Please model this.
Amino acid sequence: MANSITEAIILAGGLGTRLQGVVPNLPKCMAPVAGQPFINHVIGYLQQAGIQRFIFSLGYMGTQIEKHVRETYPHVETVFVTEVMPLGTGGAIQWAGKQASNTDVAIVNGDTLFKVDFASLASLHHSKEAACTLALKPIQQFDRYGCVTVDATGRITQFIEKKGQEPALINGGIYILNMPLFLQTPLVAPFSFEKNYLEAFYLQHKIYGQVQDAYFIDIGVPEDYARAEEELNDE
Model:
């Protein structure tokens, strides 16, 4: 089954404050992991999954990311959108989404590698005519994450705050988003994609989730950054 999603927005504007003690003077997605900037692992995986056009949503030290991507991937179709002020995750997607050329666009985080099956995720998204489809990761301990519940069809029925229950499904931070529908939603930046869109509109919009127990690492805290170094070195 081929992946019908060929365009992705990579959110790479975060400050990375929790990693500053370990990786100073670098944007979070540029932190070295297994001999190369982490963003390379993300781009490489997305290319394998069939993504051909990349829109980078940049902020903190964005020129460093843009320079690296342009030099490392000179033949890849890339677009760079830089925030002049923090827009929140929702505002960043909203602004970068205006550069999208397709109706359905993958949204990923530049500091997270979640090796989802995009073809399967896209199949659910299209079959349900969804506004947004989330990749959900089963996890044993989720004190850093809120969890999500779905019904038998995959439609999201609840978002639950971080409580540390186990096991559960978490939002893995990878989405397929119907961009025209999202851009028509009356939201003004700065706003959170998770709080102000997903959690606010899941009853009105068709928002689905698909469980994918694939490799997942978020380098946002030093202990997981160290784990990424170990695990991605072994590949």
Remarks:
- DSSP finds seven helices and 13 strands in the chain.
